[in-house]
Design a protein that fits this description.
Blueprint lengths: L1 E5 L4 H12 L5 E4 L10 H6 L7 E4 L2 E4 L1 H11 L10 H38 L1 H8 L5 H11 L5 H25 L11 H15 L10 H10 L3 H6 L32
Parallel strand pairs: 1-2
Antiparallel strand pairs: 1-3, 3-4
The structure holds glutathione.
The site of glutathione has 12 residues, from helix 1 and helix 3.
């Protein structure tokens, strides 16, 4: 039995959902509402001491870290193998999975915090956010979060992150020149594609696709990934996407009766 603690609009969870969907594996979801600090509650912390998602449980074994989980699933369920044939391409696959975690993910966190999280205060109101923040076991961190969501957008930080992101995308463009495509490591759709695609999904959702303007192969690749049925099955439903440039907050204050973990648009 496979269970996963996740939230829909998390690129790390999206990655694992893509692997599960490619392999057509059944899994039981446990939805975490990060805005309510579910992931800092003692029961969850027992499973995942870092208080982050995803956490996967397979036949009682707890597994952490999206990249580790993705590779574990690929090794455990050989249907639709997600690793290239050659050791060189497998090394390149791990290199891109590493670069996603080390460079791309932190950059989209900066962009997302500014362009998405800051909408929470306007949507829910500070009083509600303060109420939820009482559930955080570390009140200094909770206060820091409240300060950040209520600060004005730091456009300079967003622009700097977008520039750095575009630089990494140019490296990815070169990788396609080297591998010949259609996938990042050549002929085989692999964990490299599955690591980077959710990040580009977020870039698209942030309306920052201009970072791909000098990287046509990357743009073509991303369109190709989006045609995969497994990508669709793993994608966040619109209702569970956070508010952002492509999903404005509703006109009136959001009621807490909305479906658990959702971000209603009306
Ligand atoms: N390296 C970890 C990163 C996990 C991570 O940071 N997850 C984010 C969501 S993508 C999270 O849980 N953030 C906590 C929060 O939003 O408070 C992994 O790949 O699993």
């Amino acid at each position: 039995m496979i269970e996963m603690y996740h939230f829909w609009d998390s690129p790390c969870c999206f990655k694992v959902r893509m692997v599960l969907a490619e392999k057509e594996l059944e899994w039981t979801p446990h939805l975490i509402a990060s805005v309510q600090f579910d992931h800092f509650q003692p029961d969850y912390q027992k499973l995942n001491p870092h208080c982050i998602v995803p956490t996967l449980i397979h036949d009682g074994q707890i597994l952490l870290q999206s990249g580790v989980i993705a590779e574990y699933l690929d090794e455990t369920f050989p249907k639709m193998g997600l690793k290239p044939e050659s050791a060189t391409n497998r090394a390149l696959m791990r290199q891109w999975a590493h670069d996603e975690q080390t460079y791309l993910f932190p950059l989209i966190i900066t962009m997302s915090f500014n362009l998405m999280m800051t909408l929470r205060e306007k949507a829910y109101g500070m009083e509600q956010l303060q109420e939820w923040s009482k559930r955080h076991p570390d009140q200094t961190r909770a206060q820091n979060y409240l300060n950040r969501v209520s600060s004005p957008i730091n456009q300079e930080a967003v622009d700097a992150a977008a520039d750095q992101f575009a630089w990494h995308i140019k490296r990815l463009e070169k990788q396609f020149e080297m591998s010949g495509g259609p996938w990042i490591c050549g002929e085989v759709y692999s964990l490299a594609d599955i690591s980077v695609a959710p990040i580009l999904d977020r870039i698209e959702y942030l309306d920052l696709m201009s970072v791909l303007k000098n990287s046509p192969r990357v743009a073509e690749w991303f369109n190709h990934v989006k045609t995969r049925p497994a990508f669709h099955r793993a994608s966040p439903p619109f209702e569970y996407r956070m508010w952002g440039p492509k999903k404005p907050i509703p006109q009136k204050q959001v009621s807490t009766d909305a479906p658990y973990g959702s971000f209603p648009s009306v």
